[in-house]
Amino acid sequence: MHDADLIRLTYRIETPGSVEAMAAKIASDQSTGTFVPLPGETPELKARVAARVLSVRHLPPVSASAFPDEAGDATEFNCGEAEIGFPVDAVGTDLAALMTIAIGGVFSIKGLTGIRITDLKLPLSFAGSYPGPQFGLPGSRRLTGVTGRPLIGTIVKPALGLRPHETADMVGELVEAGVDFIKDDEKLMSPAYSPLSERVKAIMPKILDHEQKTGKKVMYAFGISATDPDEMMRNHDLVLEAGGNCAVVNINSIGFGGMAFLRKRSGLVLHAHRNGWDILTRHSHLGFEFSVWQQFWRLLGVDQFQINGIRVKYWEPDESFIRSFKAVTTPIFDESDCAMPVVGSGQWGGQAPDTFAANGSTDLLYLCGGGVVSHPGGPGAGVKAVTQAWEAAVSGMPLEDYAREHPELAEAIQKFGDGRHA
Amino acid sequence: MHDADLIRLTYRIETPGSVEAMAAKIASDQSTGTFVPLPGETPELKARVAARVLSVRHLPPVSASAFPDEAGDATEFNCGEAEIGFPVDAVGTDLAALMTIAIGGVFSIKGLTGIRITDLKLPLSFAGSYPGPQFGLPGSRRLTGVTGRPLIGTIVKPALGLRPHETADMVGELVEAGVDFIKDDEKLMSPAYSPLSERVKAIMPKILDHEQKTGKKVMYAFGISATDPDEMMRNHDLVLEAGGNCAVVNINSIGFGGMAFLRKRSGLVLHAHRNGWDILTRHSHLGFEFSVWQQFWRLLGVDQFQINGIRVKYWEPDESFIRSFKAVTTPIFDESDCAMPVVGSGQWGGQAPDTFAANGSTDLLYLCGGGVVSHPGGPGAGVKAVTQAWEAAVSGMPLEDYAREHPELAEAIQKFGDGRHA
Questions:
Q1: Residue A84: φ, ψ to 5°
Q2: In this structure, is residue B23 part of a structural domain?
Q3: Same-domain status, A276 and A196
Q4: What is the CATH number for B371?
Q5: Which residues contact B337 (CB under 8 A, 6 or more apart)?
Q6: B400 and B325 fall within a common domain
Q7: Lateral strand order in the sheet of B6-15
Q8: Of A200, A140, A135, whose CA–CA distance to A164 is shortest?
């Protein structure tokens, strides 16, 4: 079988037993294997659909198991990464099938004390089967008219509790402040005190008036997520008909089905929040690497992907964020399937130099909540400070030096610097 | 605020710091909280939507953290269960919103070394917002005509690789054997070597012929899962139009959106496989209790819920299975929202006495793969053996005693007994 017909997955295996044996078990269980030889099981059909172990790379053993209840009497756990190939003929190109066949069942195998999916290489046959992003980075730049620097965005806060007219007042102020992008907090969808329809009605005039006056259309991402895809489409249509161009989608809550349904019918930039994802990745011997998981969502159509940032206020080590940035900007098949990285959480501009140094790019949406709206000089000064921080980062000048001639940045450093978060 | 207006969630918290402080942080972060006081944040709006800690129950501290990379220098980790109430006015009754607001973000909070959602109590306002199961236990009994004992089911094996005519041959044999229920392995959806349309065309005549001859219609669950809800509906329609009445749905792969879309339009019994779920529950200080997670899916419309069994071949302690059995058969609001428990994995009848002793019920679907098809006397003898095992269990007679006059059971004990798995 030619390699082009294989889906290749890498599993980080932790076990008191043999890593090789566990890899072989994964390959068998997840394709043709059963525990009792069966009459219909012929060598011919095994060859047609069997997964096989391509390689095993050993890692140093560990002294504590990821699943402690599985440890038994063992005091040392063998570790390794096994690459397993699944014939695309056996799986097809359906992502739900791939998730079920090659990933889902693996998490329940006995004898594993830890299991993590660390790599996924899809064959070309997946390329034509999914729409991928409709807008991505180029669409996001075109719609906002921003070139040569990151898009500067902010989030309406507090997360919950503002009524539509209160949100719209804040949006009016933020639009005046010069931001490129504003979003609903991901937790705000359509509660009784702020139905999406009312929010759209209150907010869009602020966006459109500002566009009329200045020619600059701020991208506003409305929280359209809903359990029922039909309802989510009605939400989508409300935004589109009112002249909006973006939506926040909680991908992990709506699932593959919600995302696939929406993307097929969408006219909006789809800004993905991965809310809930952390439980699947926070333990290095359990769950998934983001580089694996994000491929599913990009093929399904995510345009802008929230991936945290440097020195965030929630959990994520900087090096994990840097890997995520690389992941979403690396083609699966070609440039068109890349998502625009959305860098956020506790950002105020102070992390711009390290962000630029690590990723070498300004092709991103830089999201600052408190970093913009809690700037001592108000949101307008906040946007200036963040922009100045990126100018400094790109020119290679230390922030403190650049701040000497840029008072907004100086004030931001005064308020948010020294490890304090925005 | 009256309790009827609260969504109550319980969080098992593990932290080197204060459990109370962490509970307060969850309540704040997941509703109105931000890290910097903001202009729009008034006491009035906080009162309207703020979550609040209702109680904290301390648990013994542990010496190893669930997230080892978060442990720092700590050698002891405080544990406790905090109940937090979320005003339904703030969340609404959308399940994706509930997942996002009350659960998703919690997994990323810093300072936690472990976090698990252990209980969920929904207010009555959710009852009218979701369809719940369309068939459940009564519908499954009515469609199969089986009363007074568990439905006996089996799975076509091997999981992958049989072509439609090969599968149909096996189905013909299983139907003759007297099973009540047959399903595709959850990993079989619609690959090129066995497109669902071909499988339906080959299998349904076997089911319908048998019904013509005997009056007994075997319930066959076809694997209709697909990433794209429109495609899943076409799969659904194929089955329904051919006279089928059941479908396997990989709920964790299709997500809330896929499930909600399907249920609204479904005429089939929806048999849920939770493939992939284990990674969210296998560590007792991480993820979810099944009792929480299953409520979402039952409200969305799961009729039959796979929940493992006693002495299974994959991971799950017996006591966890027993809790799951209780969970799916306990009303959220009333009996109509209960799912039929599907007991499977390594079952052959030998676990019937312990299963009956633990749950006190025969209202279940008992799924045996190898336990039926690999019986030394063939599938017909396998079905008889399993039925006899349940007769013994209900009558309180030891299997070995009952086997004296029931040769099929005796053969099954011979082959599968002593801890060997089917």
A1: -125, 135
A2: yes
A3: yes
A4: 3.20.20.110
A5: B127, B132, B133, B298, B299, B331
A6: yes
A7: B52-62, B77-87, B6-15, B114-121, B286-288
A8: A200
Q: Does A283 touch chain B (CB under 8 A)?
A: yes
Are A182 and A322 in the same domain?
A: yes
- Rounded Cα gap, residues B272 and A133, in angstroms: 30
The predicted pLDDT at position B38 comes to 54
Question: Does any CB of chain A come closer than 8 Å to the CB of residue B346?
Answer: yes
Residues 6+ apart with CB under 8 A from A100: B186, B187, B189, B225, B250, B253, B273, B275, B276
CB contact under 8 A, A33 and B158: yes
> From CA A343, how far away is CA A316, in angstroms rounded?
12
Q: Which amino acid type is present at position A352? A: A
Q: Give residue B207's identity as a one-letter amino acid code.
A: I
* Residue to substitute from B100, B166, B236, B347, interface A, most A β-carbons within 10 A: B100
Q: Are A97 and B189 in contact (CB under 8 A)?
A: yes
Last residue of a domain, one of A126, A147, A163: A126
| Same-domain check for residues B61 and B95 | yes
ipTM of the complex: 0.95
**What is the number of domains present in chain A?**
2
A366 Cβ neighbours under 8 A, 6+ residues apart: A150, A151, A152, A153, A309, A343, A344, A347, A352, A355, A386, A390
Chain A: residue whose CA lies nearest to B116: A279
- Candidate from A45, A101, A157 with C-beta closest to B161: A45
Are A289 and A300 in contact, with CB atoms under 8 Å apart? no
Residue ranges making up the domain that contains B380: 136-416
How far is B16 from B112, CA to CA, in rounded Å?
A: 8
Question: Pick from B88, B108, B126: which residue ends a domain?
Answer: B126
Give the domain CATH number at B116.
3.30.70.150
Residues of B in contact with A421 (CB under 8 A): 35
Q: Are residues B191 and B336 in the same domain?
A: yes
Q: For residue B228, with 0-12 CB atoms within 10 Å meaning exposed, 13-18 middle and 19 or more buried, which class applies?
A: buried
Q: Is residue A412 in some structural domain?
A: yes
Q: Report the b/e string of A347-362 with b at 16+ CB within 10 A.
A: bbbbbbbebbebbeeb
- Top pLDDT among B36 and A314 is at A314
> What angle (nearest 5°) sits at the alpha carbon of residue A36, between those of residues A35 and A39?
135
Q: What is the pTM of this model?
A: 0.96
For residue B178, the model assigns a pLDDT of 96
Which pLDDT score, from 0 to 100, does residue A328 have? 98
> Which residues in chain A land under pLDDT 50?
1, 35-37
Task: Identify which has the larger pLDDT, A239 or B72.
Answer: A239
Residue B53 included in any domain = yes
pLDDT in tens, B294-327: 999 999 999 999 999 999 999 999 999 999 999 9
Q: Do A180 and A239 share a domain, yes or no?
A: yes
Residue B421 placed within a domain:
no
**Which DSSP string corresponds to A169-231?**
HHHHHHHHHT-SEEE--TT-S--TTS-HHHHHHHHHHHHHHHHHHHS---EEEEE---SSHHH
User: What is the distance between the alpha carbons of residues B355 and B134, in angstroms, rounded to a whole number?
Assistant: 26
- Tens digits of residue pLDDT in A403-412: 999 999 999 9
Report pLDDT for A31: 83
Q: Measured between CB atoms, which of A104, A115, A232 is closest to B253?
A: A104
Q: Does B47 touch chain A (CB under 8 A)?
A: no
Asked if residues A393 and A355 have their Cβ atoms less than 8 Å apart, the reply is: yes
Residues B375-394 have pLDDT tens digits of 999 999 999 999 999 999 99
Looking at the structure, do residues B242 and B357 belong to the same domain, yes or no?
yes
Asked whether the beta carbons of A256 and A299 are under 8 A apart, the reply is: no
Shared domain for A59 and A152, answered yes or no, is no
Give mean pLDDT, residues B124-151.
97
Q: Does B1 touch chain A (CB under 8 A)?
A: no
Q: Does B361 touch chain A (CB under 8 A)?
A: no
Residue-wise pLDDT tens digits, A125-152: 999 999 999 999 999 999 999 999 999 9
